[in-house]
Please model this.
Amino acid sequence: MPSARTATARSGASLAQTAELRPFTKVNIDPITLQVLGGAFHSIATQMAELLIRMAYSNIMRESQDIGAGILDVVGRQICESDSTPMHCGSLPAYVRGVNRKLAGTYQPGDVVLHNHPYHGASHSPDYGILIPIFHDGRHVGFAGCTGHILDIGAAHPGFSVDVPDIYAEGNIIDAAKIYEAGKRNDALWAHIMDNVRTPDANSGDLEALIACSRFGEEKFGALLRRYGIDAVMSAAEMWMDYAETRLRQEIARVPSGTYRAPYGWLEDDGKNWGKPLKIATKVIVEGSDITIDLTGSNDEVETGFNVPFEGSVLPTANFAVRTLFLDEATTADPVPQNDGIFRPIHVIAPEGSIYNPRFPRGCEARFVQINRIPDQVLQAFAKAMPERVVAGNSANVSAIVYSGFNEADRKYWVVIEVNEGSYGGRFGKDGIDAIDNLMANTRNTPIEESELRVPIRCERYELRDDPPAAGRWRGGIGSVKRWRFLTDAAVNSTGDHRSVDPPRGLFGGANGMPGRLTRNAGTKRAQKLAAKVSDIRFKRGETIEIVTVSAAGYGDPVERDPEAVAEDVREGLLDARQARRDYKVVLKGADVKVDAAATTRLRATNLRNKKRSTN
Amino acid sequence: MPHVRFAQRSADRGIAKTIASVSPAAPRLEAVLIQIGVDIGGTFTDLVLWDDAADSVWVHKLASTPHDPSEAAVAGIVALCDLAGIRPADVGRVFHGTTVATNILIERSGAKVGLITTKGFRDVLYIGRKKRPLTFSNYQDVPWQTHPLVKRRHRLGVEERVAPPKGEVVVALDEKEAIAAIRKLKAAGVESVAVCFLFSFLNPRHEKRVKALLKREFKEAFLSTSHEVVPLYREYERFATTCLNAYVGPKTARYIDRFAQALRYIGLRSELRLMSSAGGVVTADGAKLLPVSLLLSGPAAGLISGIASGVAAGTTNVITLDVGGTSADIGVAPNGELREKHLLDTRIRDYDAMMPMADIDTIGAGGGSIAYVDPGGMFRVGPRSAGAVPGPVCYGRGGTEPTVTDALVAVRWLRAEGFHHAGLTIDAARGAAAIADKLAKPLGLGIEEAALGVLRIVAHNMVEAITLNSIRKGFDPRHFVLVALGGAGPVFAVPIARELGIPKVIVPPHPGVGAAMGLLCSDVSYTFQGTLWENLARPNLRRIDRSYEELEERARRRLGADGYDADAIAIRRRTNCRYVGQGYELTVEAPHGPIDNVWVSAVVAAFHALHEGTYRRRFADKEVQLINLGVVGTARRQRRFVPATAVDAGGPRNASSTAGDALFPTANGFERAHARYYDRGQIKAGDVIEGAAIIEQLDATTVLPPGSRAEADRAGNLIVYP
Model:
């Protein structure tokens, strides 16, 4: 078990040493059966996630797919997991550990456990986890579990907000409570939970969906155990874990052992103490096929809700950062399943009392911005060692905004959580991806037509932002601009980071990215710039909010960019001819924007001479 | 006693033969004496001719002509008519399943499209749903950005805005700006224009106006408006579908025209009908208006022929498994009804298309699927395929990686002697060597064990896909029959049926031309839809009534234009419902009759039941919302079954030609069994064949492992009891 509460928390070590807890005998599995069972594991996790998404109520679960689902053994080793949202991938083991610490030994068939304690494994308090113990031949052999972001858990402000003193202001904490015991629902507990939130209709639907999802997993995994026997199934599960571990270790071992450092990263503020940036220190240590992400030196924990739960959030993030870099799905031929094996080579150090390992009862709801910088920092650390696999500075934040209001007619709150897209930095051989969820975020947007049919807001713009992309041989991805008009009075909460203090970092001569912004009544005389983190700002009917998301950084010297690609960006209206000349030294001519090859060659040659002269 | 004939002749560029037939008295719905089904695939063009007067069915297969797919089709029709001894002028109808629209997408060779959209929303098409296809990847490409259906310079916004809930105009259309946009697109050399405004499904006034302006200013352009293509809410999906229509439209229309012209040239006077993705056929005019509806039509036809085979064999719950060279299509049809995909799943390759689409899953598992050991030592099969070139190792065309076909040869389910592919010789030793080298050695298995392993893994992938498409959706495969189609469907059908507890497998007379058969079994059908967003706890009954009336009228008009009388048209109503607050709908069949409280209660009750069937839960206390209305107008056609064959009083004697050893999987490994090899053409109705047996025919192989048993029925099917 990783110890997360010592002065220096170090985690990621396999749980395999707890093998004595195995309720089965390890047997040899032939390669064909192994493949068959691997397919079955994947299929169960995929189906669980699908059922949850389709049945869910709130837009954050259903459209944003802010959920995770899988099967785990009795100590929380992951056998399989849906690959929906990275933030939820790998957080389930921590939920199991958190729940086991209270309930181990008490499980009965028909139990359903609800848990969201961020100091005992929850990713953050709005992420409800539902765990159902799986029984086979009367023995407890594992868990079917899932997590999902609940719209409103009774926080100080609708949805969520940053400026809260502790976890109790983030909403109701449910610490490993059996919402069903031996098949019987605890109606009093259920009613109590729903009586203390602003969106009981959506929450009860979502909770039902979470329970249905885990029940489905319980049933399917149970059927697998009956069909193949527990020894075969669990042995195959271990072999698949070993397989995932082997595949990841093979890749890590290709990198020379040593310590790789990223430049310090900076977060704008904690959402209360304005103008005080927070430091992110990152070094990555490779020892053979083991990798350690050391966050020592990062900022101390802060007094708002802007801290990060270590187990439920930092560990899944480290897992994501490493596996995405080393086993990129787009360039890795054979799929590697998400299971406990992936965690084994990965270790994390974050001193207790730091922003990445806060102490109870610090608030830690708004953790995504800090989280999403970790994979970005890891990429920066490996830039020189793996130039063909890293990415220039990403948007590496999240723009999560809550719009809410109170409908006098039916005496109910309406709450919408919007997760706006980011962008990818330029990549070796490829431009960055425009207007898309970045790194740990991978959620869907809610259709504008859906939002407008449901709640009193109207969209006035949803496009790529207007300024040109960050220049580079492979340019940075472009952020988006979205503007909403409120048709009734409303409140806004937000937990972003504009990257104004520390914009996405250009690589190998590429330009830095462009910060985002949040503006009230943009384009009018009343225009007002807002911080990325706002807590309970009130809007009057008719006012607007405009969200401009971060554009990522460029990769490589812009002067080496294919002139035809520059011309195409001009034709597509992403930059103009003047910028093409200034940033890329490309000369364009004619109404159809053709490259003037001769003039471009001359201009680039002159530029090169000038550069040499200035360095000499 | 019905009249029976067997004939087998070779034709120009393929092989044709008749299968026996009779003329059972069927209800005459649309009576057409002679009809032809043409299914054009990437490798082969399959044709089937049904001649009611002569009680016969003729089948023909020839190589496709990708440069102009209609070439092989026309040559095939000529050859078929010749074989059947009729003139093309005698043919009543030609039904066509085409991948032409799909190929345009694959080759990215569609039209240069312009988009006129609401100002401020030109990039909706480009941002999409902003979720990456791959979770764990920094180096992926996002297809809707690397290959947008419409370039940004051709996506133009104009002032206008319609708003919910009633579709009120909150910003008037700026006509001057619209005209300027049209002229700009025209000057840019765009050939197809999509008009996509927000909330046009609530009020299409602005889209209609811009369409009128386009007709005035740019009449040669191919026009697609979002309220006509798919008047449903969800802007990205609606815009993408409309732009897909614009993208494939001009070329598809030209293809249809050229094909029709070629048919006229050979003297064929009948009209051309095409299969749509939803599994109905549409007229050439209908297809040209909505070419996006042709995408993915091939697998639908296969499923329809599977259903027809099931019905002919006296059963209606059908799962079809159509396995070809590179992929397997799996369809589940409870009660003999095609189901449509959930709208989250109606993607066509890289693009979202909100079109009714038969619920068919395709996985990368076929005869050409490559088996290998990955860097982590794991035994894998597919989805990579050796394709037609270089193909399996045993073909000796340069393939070096062992495939499913090589494994089939190694276990002697395929024999060189029984291999009917034109011009192919099988080198079993070469395939076995590749299995030994690439699979058996690294895995520490014997060659035969490894070969059977390949087959078990590929069969298991199919089992998983069937599970996903049946159990997940609330259907128990034990209450279904499995219809095996394609060259390799009947190879895997029995082990798969055993695994899933399916009691019966049907192998139709010609599994290899399932799609062409299906064309002849399909009804003419059109779907019309609209978004309503009505809470059924307090519904506006008049509004629902009016909407149905309008959609039903459109369906009748469309079928009327196709030449069907009012009494030949069947109208089905349906709704897409969800609980208030949910995000995804389920499709509920809705009753006919007046829209009143009784009607509403029936829909609500049906929704609760469907939700429980699909998701295992019903929320009886939650309100139900009707999101979309739909009307399916159908003109039913006569043939819903495959013609029957005669009972041969001679009994099961004889068809056996040879015997030999083959390998079969068992619970714990494999067994060697003495198998008999039969020629399918020699099997008569009433024959019973016990496994182990391999039944060979022109375009398919049926494998009966030990313990299974097949009976040939009067419809020419093999009914296999696994």
Observations:
- The domain at 106-255 of chain B is CATH 3.40.50 (Rossmann fold).
- Residues 40 and 349 of chain B are 19 Å apart (CA to CA).
- Chain B touches chain A through 68 residues (CB under 8 Å).
